[in-house]
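Key result, reporting period 2: structure in, sequence out.
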C-alpha cells in the first residue's frame, strides 16, 4: 500500500523527528494548541499536510515580523 503524503498521519515521535524537537516539547505544544494535532484515545496524532501548512505559516509570520 502506498501512503499519500497528504493523508499521512504522524505520531508524536515522528513529528519530533521531522521538526528536530524533543517529544516532550511536541506534547506540550499540542496540549496548548501551539501545534495542530488531534487525539485518538490518549495518543496525539498529526496530519503531515497540516504540519507542513503550519510550518509555512510560521515562516511567513517570522518574515513579516522582521
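The corresponding designed sequence is given below.
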Amino acid at each position: 500500500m502506498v501512503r499519500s503524503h497528504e493523508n499521512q498521519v504522524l505520531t508524536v515521535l515522528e513529528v519530533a523527528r521531522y521538526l528536530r524537537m524533543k517529544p516532550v516539547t511536541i506534547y506540550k505544544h499540542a496540549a496548548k494548541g501551539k501545534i495542530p494535532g488531534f487525539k485518538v484515545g490518549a495518543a496525539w496524532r498529526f496530519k503531515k499536510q497540516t504540519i507542513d501548512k503550519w510550518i509555512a505559516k510560521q515562516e511567513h509570520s517570522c518574515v513579516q515580523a522582521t
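Strands lie at 9-10, 38-40, 43-47. The first helix runs from residue 12 to 19. This case is discussed further under Risks and Mitigation.
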